[in-house]
Specification:
The protein is α+β, with helices and mostly antiparallel strands. The protein is 23% helix and 37% strand.
Length: 145
């Protein structure tokens, strides 16, 4: 499996705001959805996290909106793990409209690995660290798109 995970989506009319384009909250939801799908594809579905009593929470998001997307647009959503530290991991995202190959959004999330019962941060298990390929500068992302 490549280091950059790609999903395709079609923008539903329910994602459109009063200004006629995709609402910013939708990008957050899609970021979470593609991160979960990538994790599952790398052997870490939600059930595995629950079995070890740990999971991920967001510390911060950065989103740069470059162009609007509209109802019916076909979008490629790419994500990759940019780093894994002791208790945190940075994941990056790129949204591209398929019709014109224009980049719509660049984003990143700083995730913290936590104990589900206590909510306290905890060390990321070694088998998880080695389960994801690291793309340190996003250089592989354009090839995946």
């Amino acid at each position: 499996m490549p280091a950059v995970f790609v999903q395709h989506l079609s923008v539903p009319s329910s994602a459109i705001d009063a200004l006629g384009h995709v609402n910013n909250q939708e990008y957050l939801r899609w970021m979470q959805d593609v991160a979960i799908a990538h994790s599952a594809a790398r052997g870490w579905p939600m059930e595995r996290y629950l079995a070890i009593g740990a999971g991920w929470v967001v510390r911060s998001h950065f989103i740069e909106y470059l162009r609007p997307a509209f109802a019916g647009d076909a979008i490629r959503v790419a994500t990759w793990v940019a780093d894994v530290k002791r208790k945190t991991s940075t994941r990056k995202y790129r949204f591209t409209r398929e019709a014109d190959d224009r980049e719509l959004v660049r984003a990143e999330t700083l995730w913290v690995f936590v104990d589900i019962a206590s909510g306290a941060s905890r060390e990321i298990p070694e088998e998880m660290k080695t389960g994801f390929l690291i793309v340190t500068d996003g250089a592989e992302a354009p090839r995946a798109l």
